[in-house]
Amino acid sequence: MATNHLSAQSFEAMRSQAEAGDAASQCYLGICYQTGNGVQQDYTEAVKWLRRAAEQNDSSAQCYLGVCYQAGLGVPQEMGEGARWFREAAEQGDPAAQFNLGVCYEMGQGVPQDLAEAVKWYHQAAERGEPQAQFNLGVFYETGQAVPQDYFEAARWYKLAAEQEVAPAQCNLGLCYQTGHGVIRSDSEAVKWFCRAAKQGDKTAQHNLGLYYASLENATSESETEAEGEGTETAG
Question: Same structural domain for residues 21 and 46?
């Protein structure tokens, strides 16, 4: 059931289903209250419905409930409780929850910091197409944290995230092409990915693009200077 542009009739129908115990409707109703879609935003009410769905093992509701606990939306902020709900959803294969749980382990939020465990959850989310997990996994492979350094794997995950318009991944992929790390070196490919990231406002990509064009201008100036000097004679 989509929650975009809900009519009053469809909202009331969803509420009736939620009150009757339908977990999917409870989850969507909770999201509506959390986002203010079709109803006045109310985080406490959002938590009430998300919890009802989460307790019926709805993985989306569990993930959203984890976010509520992490951010303190409608409940006191409790990082450990947030991680607990992320785990419940992650173990059911929810990619957003797997990514969030990976972040918890990487940052030590609500769980002991454990980079190997972070990589494990990023891998699971990345394999299900979660773009931010794909980017984070690329960083781990590029830096060699918790995994053997592998530029090929780094570039592979960056590309998957870049194709889903993750700007930092596009920037990093551009650097891979510029340096030949994990891919065949290609200035044109590097510029292509820098441009895509730069258009999204990525400052590092904008900087890299500026450096690239500056290097071209310098090379052109040097060539012109050399050409002007050819054929000249010095006084004897």
Answer: yes
